[in-house]
Design a protein that fits this description.
Order of helices and strands: EHEHHEHEHEHEHEHHHEEEEEEEHEHEH
CATH architecture of the largest domain: 2-Layer Sandwich
Helix content: 25-40%
Structural class: alpha/beta
Mean pLDDT: 90
CATH superfamily of the largest domain: Dihydrodipicolinate Reductase, domain 2
Number of strands: 16
Shape: globular
Low-confidence stretches: 457-468
Strand order of the largest sheet: 14-13-12-11-7-10-9-8-16
Strand content: 15-25%
Largest sheet: 9 strands, mixed
CATH class of the largest domain: Alpha Beta
Length: 468
């Protein structure tokens, strides 16, 4: 085994919803691919034993991804189970005993963020942190102050290079591939700047609501849930400069530079909305002002992007489930009499299918006018494609930090949204199945209007997951 590779995995929250729907299928896939062959110490407080855990794993695989008998048997042989309270030192002493001779454990915290600090401190006190890594799930804090406090706790036990802050969205192949598309196609570079780009739009739409997660979502909202993390990751992948090397730190350096160049969001550049019926969701306060829709405008004060507005919108109960980027180019001069010109554009669809499209004008057959056409390259998910969690867990265990947020990245992202999270901005009601509240269009509207994603494929089913 590579000496930098983790020689064990300690999995906190092993009986939870996230484990059931995402993590155990990913662990089986890692076994099949040959990237997982170390003890997996599962920790939870459910009153279970190892046989009950294995039965839970089998049920998870049968319902989420398919059970491979050989890989399942191998995974079961790697599993250990500790039933204990995360607040009691006895639990962590049991973990240390179960680890035996392991010297490089990876501790994966699929637990509520409120428990991160206490669990990390106890790992250190029990001697479990030495030589190890810690992998923590988002949300990483709820604002800048809480993120800084959590970073201090983590850094009190682990070094920064041993901390892996998961945003599983970065493990999705289309998001990860954006960097390759940016820097491996030379035709993009001449116009990928303020001289040619008029605006950039990033849309993350979901056609479903909170799906039983009302209590969690009401404390979070769209900005904390997807804008500050998922959509800022897309933003930095789009706007970053070519890294001087393709190692993890060089790539992460360039992403942080993008966020450092973004001024804090102003209240006048934000519209928040809440779909009608949200207040009736279980766990939601009847007086809730939590947004289920957010539309905002950003600027990147860098040489490449100075003066180019970046528009971001995300919401639930919208017409489609789709994540898409539209880069609208400046109109050419109208040198043809009577010609009505529209902007060319580049369109990246990240989900549900993967599409790269170039929008252009083509002359109408009978007259000297143009009609818009798209040149499209589309790719559907391939068989045996690596799942996002399989990728990020595998990278964490191998020590590759490229897909993980660094401390300075997290804090810069919170700095950008903190002012509007603290401001008492209005929340406008909108009808489910529409593109958000009416004020979003005139207040936060790109020149030429918002691009509306149109699906040509049926949307895939969507599972709701949460940390246990």
């Amino acid at each position: 085994m590579n000496q930098s590779h983790s020689d064990s995995l300690v999995f906190f929250g092993a009986t939870g919803d996230l484990a059931y729907k995402k993590i155990f299928p990913s662990l089986q896939a890692m076994v099949k691919r040959g990237t997982l062959d170390v003890p997996v110490v599962c920790v939870a407080k459910s009153g279970w034993n190892i046989d009950q855990l294995r039965a839970r794993v089998q049920d998870s695989l049968e319902k989420h991804g398919g059970l491979d008998r050989a890989a399942f048997d191998k995974l079961c042989s790697l599993l250990h189970y500790i039933d204990g309270d995360y607040m009691e030192m006895e639990t962590f002493q049991s973990i240390r005993r179960e680890l035996g001779s392991a010297e490089r454990p990876a501790h994966y915290l699929a637990i509520p963020p409120a428990l991160f600090g206490q669990v990390v401190e106890r790992l250190g006190q029990a001697g479990c942190a030495k030589g190890g890594r810690v992998v923590v799930e988002k949300p990483f804090g709820t604002d800048l102050e809480s993120a800084q406090a959590l970073n201090l706790i983590l850094l009190g036990t682990f070094k920064e290079k041993e901390i892996f802050r998961i945003d599983h969205y970065l493990g999705k192949r289309p998001v990860y591939s954006m960097l390759y598309n940016r820097f491996s196609n030379s035709f993009l570079e001449p116009f990928f700047n303020r001289n040619s780009v008029e605006s950039v739009q990033i849309t993350m739409a979901e056609d479903f609501g909170v799906q039983g997660r009302g209590a969690f979502y009401d404390k979070t909202g769209a900005i904390r849930d997807v804008v500050q993390n998922h959509l800022f990751q897309i933003l930095t992948n789009l706007a970053m400069e070519p890294p001087v090397r393709m190692d993890s730190e060089s790539i992460r350096d360039e992403k942080v530079k993008v966020l450092k160049a973004v001024p804090p969001v102003e209240a006048r550049h934000l519209v928040r909305g809440q779909f009608r019926g949200y207040l009736s969701e279980k766990g939601v306060s009847p007086e809730s002002k939590t947004e289920t829709f957010a539309s905002l405008r950003l600027h990147i004060d860098s040489w490449r992007w100075q003066g180019v507005p970046f528009y971001i919108r995300a919401g639930k109960c919208l017409p489609v489930t789709c994540t898409e980027v539209l880069i609208r180019l400046r109109k050419p001069p109208a040198v043809i009499p009577g010609a009505k010109l529209t902007s060319n554009y580049l369109r990246f669809r990240i989900s549900p299918d993967v599409t790269v499209a170039v929008g252009m004008l083509s002359r109408s057959p009978d007259e000297m006018t143009g009609e818009p056409v798209e040149l499209i390259a589309s790719q559907h998910p391939r068989a045996n494609e690596m799942d996002a969690y399989e990728r990020v867990l595998g990278d964490a265990m191998s020590g590759d930090r490229t897909l993980f947020a660094r401390e300075d990245y997290i804090e810069e992202a919170w700095r950008i949204v903190d002012p509007v999270l603290r401001a008492d901005t209005p929340v406008h009601e909108y009808e489910p199945g529409t593109w958000g509240p009416a004020p979003a269009t005139p207040v936060i509207a790109p020149a030429g209007g918002w691009h509306v994603p149109v699906l040509t494929l049926s949307t895939t089913s969507h599972d709701t997951v949460r940390a246990a």
